[in-house]
């Protein structure tokens, strides 16, 4: 079995699968390592901005995405206390349709990974990358089968880390386990059917100790995802003893947001609640020595702006757009330092601003005093919601039309 590749990609989510697919389409020999069997659900808002459509076309999945995804999202909103505020979603000019849509991760991730395999990428799944070391001019990645404990060593001059940021690990690019903090943000997500949320509306949910969002996604479902401070979750548990954490969080949100309570009046839970975290917003990317981080491994915005999947896939494109034209130089080791420098600059230009804006918005919501001041202003000028969506990257054209 082949163990030498042009590139090893660690992580098969939207970022990793996009990178593997783009490189395989360009003729690179690609190994992609994913530790979890697909399809699998994840805590995620599921929304993709319209500006991703040119990338979906390049990946060869635009048609399948359109067939599976939920309705076009033409309105943004804010559900906070008794307020239900609506505004127009900014339209992405020169992009097919011009409106974003949502698709469950169990469908999106599977679609991208299968397409990467069809393009020639070697998929190691379910295998976990446990070690990454440099030997002469090659990186050596130790992988272990999650089913049989079989061990393999994959060698390549380039490694792309797309393992996310939530889970600690043993790789030098993964974070180490940190002590729990009261300020940690924990993520929860569920799907609902027969929900009264207007089609085409994606509201931001602002509640004491956290924030969230709702959106119509595939198969007539509505996704509700949220982040909540651990200290607020503890207060909920004390107030509702014996109630499971997800149900307690939902009860808290329904009490805090009239819009959510109305939307879920006749709804029923579809499947199980998911939980994860703590989330790790911020810039942390590594680019050097032939190791390139993409997706949340490079940097993560607060989910308040609903740009996580878009940024993950777009960051993969930014990197591959630099690697592919210089394949011969890259594989000989002559252009890696230059490309690393260019990737850092391009990544910062495309994504650092979104991360900073998301941090500001999150703090406005998470601090009660700031919320009391800002909510009356948004009531007077709901167009602020449209401006916020624009500033968060909903019309930022990272991938040009082909």
Explain this structure.
- With 402 residues, this protein is of the alpha/beta class.
- The protein has 2 domains: 7-174 and 280-394, FAD/NAD(P)-binding domain (3-Layer(bba) Sandwich); 185-276, D-Amino Acid Oxidase, Chain A, domain 2 (2-Layer Sandwich).
- It is 36% helix and 26% strand.
- It has 12 helices and 20 strands.
- It has helices at residues 14-25, 53-59, 62-68, 105-118, 230-239, 245-256, 258-263, 308-323, 327-332, 336-366, 368-380, 383-394, and strands at residues 7-10, 30-33, 47-48, 75-80, 83-88, 101-102, 122-124, 127-135, 138-145, 151-156, 158-161, 185-193, 201-207, 210-216, 222-229, 268-276, 282-283, 287-288, 291-293, 299-300.
- A 7-stranded mixed sheet has the order 5-4-13-14-15-12-16, sandwiched between helices.
- Strand 18 and strand 19 (291-293) form a beta hairpin.
- Helix 1 (14-25) packs parallel to helix 4.
- The mean pLDDT is 93.
CATH H-level superfamily title of the largest domain: FAD/NAD(P)-binding domain
> Tell me about the biggest sheet?
7 strands, mixed
Mean pLDDT: 93
- The CATH class of the largest domain is identified as Alpha Beta
Number of helices: 12
Q: Whole-number radius of gyration? A: 21 Å
Q: How many domains, as an integer? A: 2
Structural class: alpha/beta
């Amino acid at each position: 079995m082949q163990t030498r590749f042009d590139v090893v990609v660690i992580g098969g989510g939207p970022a990793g699968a996009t990178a593997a697919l783009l490189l395989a389409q360009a003729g690179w020999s690609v190994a992609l390592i994913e530790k979890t069997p697909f399809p699998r659900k994840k805590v995620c808002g599921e929304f993709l901005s319209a500006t991703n459509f040119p990338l979906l076309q390049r990946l060869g999945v635009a048609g399948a995405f359109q067939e599976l995804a939920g309705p076009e999202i033409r309105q943004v909103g804010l559900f906070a206390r008794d307020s239900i505020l609506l505004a127009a979603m900014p339209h992405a000019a020169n992009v097919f349709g011009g409106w974003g849509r949502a698709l469950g991760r169990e469908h999106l991730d599977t679609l991208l990974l299968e397409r990467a395999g069809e393009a020639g990428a070697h998929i190691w799944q379910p295998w976990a990358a446990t070690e990454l070391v440099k030997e002469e001019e090659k990186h050596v990645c130790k992988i272990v089968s999650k089913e049989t404990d079989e061990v393999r060593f994959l060698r390549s001059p380039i490694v792309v880390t797309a393992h996310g940021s939530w889970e600690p690990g043993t790789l030098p690019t993964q974070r180490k386990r940190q002590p729990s903090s009261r300020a940690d943000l924990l993520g929860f997500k569920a799907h609902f059917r027969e929900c009264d949320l207007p089609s085409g509306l994606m509201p931001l949910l602002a509640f004491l100790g956290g924030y969230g969002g709702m959106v119509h996604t595939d198969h007539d479902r509505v996704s509700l995802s949220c982040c909540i401070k651990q200290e607020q979750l503890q207060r909920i548990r004390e107030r509702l003893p014996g109630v499971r954490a997800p149900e307690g969080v939902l009860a808290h949100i329904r009490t805090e947001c009239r819009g959510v309570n109305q939307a879920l009046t006749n709804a029923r839970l579809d499947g199980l609640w998911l939980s994860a975290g703590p989330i790790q917003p911020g810039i942390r990317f590594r680019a050097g020595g032939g190791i390139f981080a993409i997706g949340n491994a490079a940097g993560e915005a607060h989910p308040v702006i609903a740009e996580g999947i878009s940024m993950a896939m777009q960051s993969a494109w930014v990197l591959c757009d630099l690697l592919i034209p210089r394949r011969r130089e890259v594989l000989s080791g002559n252009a890696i330092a230059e490309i690393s420098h260019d990737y850092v600059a391009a990544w910062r230009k495309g994504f650092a601003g979104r991360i900073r804006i998301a941090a500001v918005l999150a703090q406005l919501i998470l601090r009660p005093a700031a919320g009391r001041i800002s909510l009356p202003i948004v009531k007077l000028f709901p167009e602020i919601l449209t401006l916020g969506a624009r500033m968060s990257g909903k019309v930022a054209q990272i991938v040009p039309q082909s």
